[in-house]
Amino acid sequence: MVLHSKWRGMLLSLFVMAAAFAWQSAIAQGVFHDLSGVVKKVDKSAKTVVVKAADGTEHTIKYTEKTTVEGTKDAGKEAAKGSAETYLAGKEGAKITVHYTEEGAEKTAVAVKDAVD
User: Fold this and answer.
1) Which residues have C-beta within 8 Å of that of residue 84, sequence separation ≥ 6?
2) What are the backbone angles phi and psi of residue 103, rounded to the nearest 5°?
3) CA nearest to 32, candidates 106, 99, 113
4) What is the pLDDT of residues 60-99, one digit of tens each?
5) 83-to-37, 41, 76, 104 alpha-carbon distances in Å
6) Are the CB atoms for 79 and 69 separated by under 8 Å?
7) What is the pLDDT of residues 20-41, one digit of tens each?
8) Whole-prediction pTM
Protein backbone atom coordinates (compact mmCIF):
# COMPACT_ATOMS: atom_id res chain seq x y z
CA MET A 1 0.00 0.00 0.00
CA VAL A 2 2.86 2.39 0.83
CA LEU A 3 4.49 1.59 -2.52
CA HIS A 4 1.23 2.36 -4.33
CA SER A 5 0.95 5.83 -2.77
CA LYS A 6 4.62 6.59 -3.59
CA TRP A 7 3.92 5.85 -7.25
CA ARG A 8 0.81 7.99 -7.17
CA GLY A 9 2.80 10.88 -5.67
CA MET A 10 5.54 10.54 -8.28
CA LEU A 11 3.00 10.41 -11.12
CA LEU A 12 1.23 13.48 -9.77
CA SER A 13 4.55 15.34 -9.54
CA LEU A 14 5.43 14.33 -13.08
CA PHE A 15 2.04 15.53 -14.33
CA VAL A 16 2.42 18.91 -12.60
CA MET A 17 5.90 19.37 -14.10
CA ALA A 18 4.64 18.47 -17.59
CA ALA A 19 1.71 20.89 -17.27
CA ALA A 20 4.03 23.69 -16.13
CA PHE A 21 6.36 23.04 -19.07
CA ALA A 22 3.45 23.05 -21.55
CA TRP A 23 2.16 26.34 -20.08
CA GLN A 24 5.56 28.01 -20.42
CA SER A 25 5.89 26.79 -24.02
CA ALA A 26 2.48 28.21 -24.90
CA ILE A 27 3.39 31.59 -23.41
CA ALA A 28 6.79 31.64 -25.16
CA GLN A 29 5.19 31.06 -28.57
CA GLY A 30 3.11 34.21 -28.33
CA VAL A 31 -0.27 34.99 -29.76
CA PHE A 32 -0.91 35.06 -33.49
CA HIS A 33 -2.81 37.85 -35.25
CA ASP A 34 -4.09 38.34 -38.80
CA LEU A 35 -4.06 41.68 -40.58
CA SER A 36 -5.47 42.39 -44.03
CA GLY A 37 -4.82 45.63 -45.81
CA VAL A 38 -3.02 47.48 -48.57
CA VAL A 39 0.77 47.43 -48.80
CA LYS A 40 1.97 51.03 -48.48
CA LYS A 41 5.72 50.45 -48.39
CA VAL A 42 8.28 47.65 -48.47
CA ASP A 43 11.71 48.41 -46.98
CA LYS A 44 14.11 45.67 -48.13
CA SER A 45 17.04 46.97 -46.06
CA ALA A 46 15.03 47.03 -42.81
CA LYS A 47 13.03 43.94 -43.85
CA THR A 48 9.72 45.60 -43.00
CA VAL A 49 6.40 46.08 -44.73
CA VAL A 50 3.87 48.80 -43.91
CA VAL A 51 0.26 47.62 -44.25
CA LYS A 52 -2.66 50.05 -44.06
CA ALA A 53 -5.72 48.38 -42.50
CA ALA A 54 -9.33 49.16 -43.43
CA ASP A 55 -9.63 51.49 -40.42
CA GLY A 56 -6.74 53.60 -41.75
CA THR A 57 -4.17 52.40 -39.20
CA GLU A 58 -0.73 51.72 -40.64
CA HIS A 59 1.12 48.72 -39.20
CA THR A 60 4.85 48.16 -39.63
CA ILE A 61 5.63 44.46 -39.64
CA LYS A 62 9.07 42.86 -39.81
CA TYR A 63 9.62 39.82 -42.03
CA THR A 64 12.41 37.25 -41.77
CA GLU A 65 13.83 34.36 -43.77
CA LYS A 66 11.40 32.17 -41.81
CA THR A 67 8.33 34.10 -43.04
CA THR A 68 6.42 31.84 -45.41
CA VAL A 69 4.50 32.81 -48.52
CA GLU A 70 1.15 31.10 -48.89
CA GLY A 71 -0.47 30.43 -52.29
CA THR A 72 -0.84 33.47 -54.50
CA LYS A 73 -3.44 34.32 -57.11
CA ASP A 74 -1.36 36.25 -59.62
CA ALA A 75 2.26 35.41 -58.89
CA GLY A 76 4.25 32.70 -60.59
CA LYS A 77 5.19 29.45 -58.89
CA GLU A 78 8.65 30.84 -58.13
CA ALA A 79 7.25 33.67 -55.97
CA ALA A 80 4.81 31.31 -54.27
CA LYS A 81 7.70 29.05 -53.27
CA GLY A 82 10.17 31.88 -52.73
CA SER A 83 10.94 34.22 -49.92
CA ALA A 84 8.73 36.87 -48.40
CA GLU A 85 11.11 39.48 -49.79
CA THR A 86 10.59 38.22 -53.36
CA TYR A 87 6.83 38.09 -52.84
CA LEU A 88 6.57 41.57 -51.29
CA ALA A 89 8.84 43.23 -53.88
CA GLY A 90 6.00 43.96 -56.29
CA LYS A 91 3.13 44.26 -53.83
CA GLU A 92 2.95 48.01 -53.10
CA GLY A 93 -0.71 48.98 -53.55
CA ALA A 94 -1.90 45.37 -53.41
CA LYS A 95 -4.12 43.83 -50.74
CA ILE A 96 -2.41 41.20 -48.60
CA THR A 97 -3.03 39.31 -45.38
CA VAL A 98 -0.22 38.99 -42.83
CA HIS A 99 -0.24 36.34 -40.10
CA TYR A 100 2.08 37.69 -37.38
CA THR A 101 3.19 37.50 -33.77
CA GLU A 102 3.61 40.48 -31.48
CA GLU A 103 6.14 40.82 -28.69
CA GLY A 104 6.06 44.21 -27.06
CA ALA A 105 5.79 46.75 -29.86
CA GLU A 106 7.46 44.51 -32.47
CA LYS A 107 5.32 42.63 -34.98
CA THR A 108 6.96 39.79 -36.91
CA ALA A 109 5.32 38.14 -39.94
CA VAL A 110 4.96 34.38 -39.82
CA ALA A 111 3.17 34.13 -43.19
CA VAL A 112 1.96 36.43 -45.97
CA LYS A 113 -0.56 35.84 -48.73
CA ASP A 114 -2.86 37.63 -51.17
CA ALA A 115 -5.97 38.96 -49.41
CA VAL A 116 -9.28 37.44 -50.37
CA ASP A 117 -11.87 40.04 -51.36
Assistant:
1) 63, 64, 67, 68, 69, 109, 112
2) -125, 110
3) 99
4) 999 999 999 987 544 444 444 458 888 898 899 999 999 9
5) 20, 17, 13, 25
6) yes
7) 666 555 455 567 899 999 999 9
8) 0.67
